[in-house]
Amino acid sequence: MKASTLKLVIAWMAVIVPLGWGVYKSAVKSKPLFLPAPAAATVPHSIR
Amino acid sequence: MNFLNREHTVAPPGFNRWLVPPAAIAAHMCIGQVYGFSVFNKPLMAELGVPVSQIQWAYSIALIMLGLSAAVFGKWVERSGPRRTIAAACACFCGGLLLASLGVHLKSLPLVLFGYGFVGGIGLGLGYIAPVSTLVKWFPDRPGMATGMAIMGFGGGALIGSPLGQELMKHFQNGADTGAGQALATMAAIYTFFMLWAAVMIRVPADDWKPDGPVAGRRNHPMITQARVAVDTAWRTPQFWLLWIVLCMNVSAGIGMLGRAADMFQDMFLGAAASDAQKTANAAIGAGFAGLLSISNLGGRFIWSSISDRTGRKAVYCVYFILGAALYALLPWAQQTQNRVLFVCLAAAIISMYGGGFATIPAYLKDLFGTYQVGAIHGRLITSWSVAAVIGPALVNGLYDSRVADGMPKAEAYNGTFFLMCGLLMLGLVANLLVRPVASKHHLP
Description:
The structure holds two protein chains of two kinds.
Chain A: H1 2-34, E1 42-43
Chain B: H1 20-31, H2 41-48, H3 52-55, H4 57-80, H5 82-105, H6 109-138, H7 143-172, H8 180-201, H9 231-234, H10 238-258, H11 261-270, E1 272-273, H12 276-311, H13 313-336, H14 340-369, H15 374-381, H16 383-405, H17 410-413, H18 415-433
Helix pairs in contact in B: 1-6, 1-7, 1-8, 4-6, 4-15, 4-16, 5-6, 5-8, 6-7, 6-15, 7-8, 7-12, 7-14, 10-14, 10-16, 10-18, 11-12, 12-13, 12-14, 13-14, 13-18, 14-15
């Protein structure tokens, strides 16, 4: 029973760890979306 | 090679079925790399000296081959069992990566297209359907959750494949050498390990196996059959083609937005950059939006398909279509009021349902046609994905380009495409509402 539980934990970790890494990398990539927009002038397309 | 035979994968009594989802997720995580192929666009342009439009054919061919190989080899997959199929998928997908790597080395675009697109695409089709149909058989009490787990892995493959490709290219980069060839070869080695591990781990339940515990109440629902329908019969029923339309409309509506997410956000909320630094900052924000949608796509696959076990598949697709159309209709208002937070939340919810649609369809097929050849039926149905992958972006890009050509500001040019997406979702809703249980004359004795 213990061996089965260990096997289960290892099997799930083998997919959760890479998946978690991928989600973390995407979350980091999303960070600029939540930062205040830089003050530098941009020209909105709608008023060009 | 007896080890690969189906009979050698039958689980012994007392086998813990929760050991199967990691194997299925691992296989899907590897082939899901195809969604992250775009990180190779620029390096391959530099290596092969061709425009990006030619490089992108590798991705397009791979997706077309995914649908075709799943449809053609579906019956073989059911006959051969998941272990042989995942091993074959590994040989094709990882072999395709190696051929593409060789193509980069030899500066041959045709070899890259043949390797990654054609050979690798066959691996995608095989690797996509086998784990899903296996999980449906292991979790007859919770098929939505089971298929959601596997197909979530496919979505996760993009989140892993993109940064992995970038990190590897950064590692191998040397002067004029972009490192793309070595990165592809290294990825082939990594994915071979994971896919073979999945092939070793995967098991099918014995014919008389039943899950422990009480049987879920929905098993007696009229939309859930206990009968068996063969694939050659299933694809001649109206139910198959209605679900084909359901998936096609759901995917078309989502993929149209997902494919342009980064540019869309920049055009609608950030405007034209006044400097190079601003352009870089805007691109980072646009990429952030695309990244957030990818996470939402991933979560939606598991969450919505798990919910479908409680609500039923037809009801949850009605939610995807009605709520999805309502949220799409609100996007222009979010743009006009320049409410970025609202726009991001609406888009994330829409894309979660796009992912949910992918993940719920195998359970819907299982409900209507039984588990007998559900993998083969799923294989034929996902040809609609290949069609949607063409028509979704074509509709969005075509309408957007024509409105911009007519002089409409870029920020507002997307609004028409959102209403077009509402129309596609309404078509999907009609098809879904027409789905009825499969007539008993189609059931196997």
